[in-house]
Model the fold of this input.
Amino acid sequence: MSQISRRKLITTGIAVAAGASGVAIAAKIAKAHGLIPPDSGGMYGPGTTLTYAAQRLLTRHSMAREFSEGEVSKDPFANEVAPLGAEFGRLQAAGFVDWKLNVDGMAARPTTFSLAEIRSFPRSSNTTMIGCEEGWSYIAQWEGVPLSYILDRVGALPQVRYIVYRSIQPDWWESIDMADALHPQTLITHRMNGGDLPVPFGGPIRLRVPRQLGYKSVKYITSLTLTDDLRKFGKGLGSSAPEGGYSWYAGI
Amino acid sequence: MVRVTHWLTTLAFVALLITGGEIVLSHPRFYWGETGNVNMKPWLNLHLPSSRDTVPTGYGYVLPDQNGWSRYLHFEAAWLAVGTGLLYLLWGIFAGHFRRNLVPTRSNLKDIGMSIFQHLRFARPSAEEAWSYNVLQRISYLLVIFVLAPLMLWTGLAMSYGFVSSFPLSVCLLGGHQTARSLHFLVTILLVMFLLVHVVMVVVAGFRARMRGMITGRVKETA
Done:
């Protein structure tokens, strides 16, 4: 082995060792700052972790783009929904008067809210785009009670780090971190384009998370759970999306 | 460094191309402006079968959904491409690779007619040329590195709801979310065309010798 290539080998070795320890230190810091997503394991973990960490550093308080009334889509696409089942049919037939949103977990006052209560809470609205991971999109005006208001109302404990939310559709559940949960545009939406939220678009209530793709905006929500640890839910990957092969964080 | 970054980029590009294709199949239609969906008229319909039954394709079947892993891998490969690109860019600037090997020289430009003629004849490069890039190579590499690759990254990021919440201009300047998606697709086609020409040129110049050169960094004198 020649002198030069030995030197090169040593330099490369040092660079690799420095790189590896750099990554280890970065991972530790990222973990301390809540920049590691629950689906960070496995072959695609590095990519989704980089995306989530980078976007959280850049977007913690940013606002989703808002559009004018004239830009609202004339013919929005509701996407298909799996059959909603007998329970949903019964509730729908009664005009959703018995629809409940159960809030539990790390809260001082766990509460079950009726739809009438949710509709009576202070409202906020935003005209934002919803887009599917498939690539299509539409713009609508969404109106409802900010999730942060509900969290205040139930007395969310300071150690809460994630909100888990579930649909009436079996096995359909998601979660978001506090950056999105406390975000002013994150709404428990019950109105769309000036009317009650239509069933195909998630009525009676849908959690709208406008800085992420549509699959995080779960339709027909029935419960919220406040937690500090997502490993306790399902397979521990944060939501049903990674269990079906999709990333937990959907800001891209 | 040029060789290491070249092959890392190749790896990332192949992954991006395959997964990008899979993602397109879930909605093989393209629109201009901000919004686009099956209720709207696309400017381009690829008339391919789709992995979603909500898309009217005219085909009687639906392809299996590959979007989950495709999206995971697409963004992971994008990080690899960006990291590799940055490394190459820094090295290209500070080690003088761009200045020495990529920016066409005055004599390069003067001989551009001759170079075009030789390319049209599919002439094998001379032994001396095997060590350096010719003028058409220089121009096309510069276009890919400084125009198409940055456009790819830009149009990709402009589709991210999280990214544009912090940098709304990134999508507004392009003309909307769906325009960004359409441009992302069009630039892909340009890059694939570059790739095809690139590989054909390598074959014309002597595939084995060129590959050996690009992998080991050595050019056989008699090749």
In short: The interface with chain A takes residues 23-24, 26-27, 29, 34-40, 52-54, 67-69, 71-73, 75-79, 159-168, 171, 177-178, 181 of chain B (CB under 8 Å).
